[in-house]
Amino acid sequence: LRLLPLLLLFASSASSANSFTVESSLGEHELICRACGQTITKDTSILRKDEQQKISPDYDYEMAMLGVNTTVHVLTNPAGQRFHVLSTRHANVKLTTEPSPDATWYPGKAWSISVCPHCGAHMGWYFTPIGSNGQETKDDFHGIILDRVISAEFCDSMIRIPGGKP
Fold first, then answer.
1. Which residues form the signal peptide (predicted)?
2. What pTM was estimated for this model as a whole?
3. Shortest CA distance to 145 belongs to which of 39, 71, 74, 44?
4. Residue 40 belongs to what H/E stretch?
């Protein structure tokens, strides 16, 4: 049961990156858009730390995300905005720009801006090899901004049914 008003109320109070950590078995858990609750990706799509492309981020850190040990890259764009980015194979997002190799964080990759398909909130970027001409490859991945998503299980755990057990 997901109640959007409660999700919006509690999502703003759960800003710590650790609030995303849920130990679980794979295949059961989702990261959802903090703005509207739309499913963005699942634990089975999160790239493990040994599957990620090697880069030189501002810094990175390892964490368990929905039970998957992964590396989060902290990256700064040319405008000085800093992002904590989670890499995934698949994401339920809408691409809003043509791929661009300009100011890419990942050498040899072009990026397209991705947004939530329901509310249009900026979710991150889709990275594809430069020159792939829109053809999907095994080297494509999504960079999801951590503070734009939240664990559906975490949100569900915060909802209490009147008269129910705490």
1. 1-19
2. 0.76
3. 74
4. strand 39-42
What is the full DSSP assignment across 101-148? -TT-SSTTEEEEEEE-TTT--EEEEEEEETT-TT---TT-EEEEEGGG
- Residue 142, token pair as written in the block: 């999504």
Which residue(s) pair with 85 in the sheet? 73, 145
State the Cα–Cα distance between residues 134 and 79, nearest whole angstrom.
Answer: 27
Please choose, from the candidates 95, 73, 92, the residue with its C-alpha nearest in 3D space to the C-alpha of residue 84. Answer: 73
Q: SS3 for 97?
A: coil
pLDDT at 27: 54
- All residue ranges of the chain with pLDDT < 70 are 1-27, 134-135, 160-161, 163-166
Q: Which residues are CB-contacts of 27 (< 8 A; sequence separation ≥ 6)?
A: 42, 43, 44
Environment class of 106 (CB within 10 Å of its CB; exposed 0-12, middle 13-18, buried 19+): buried
One-letter amino acid at 150 equals: I
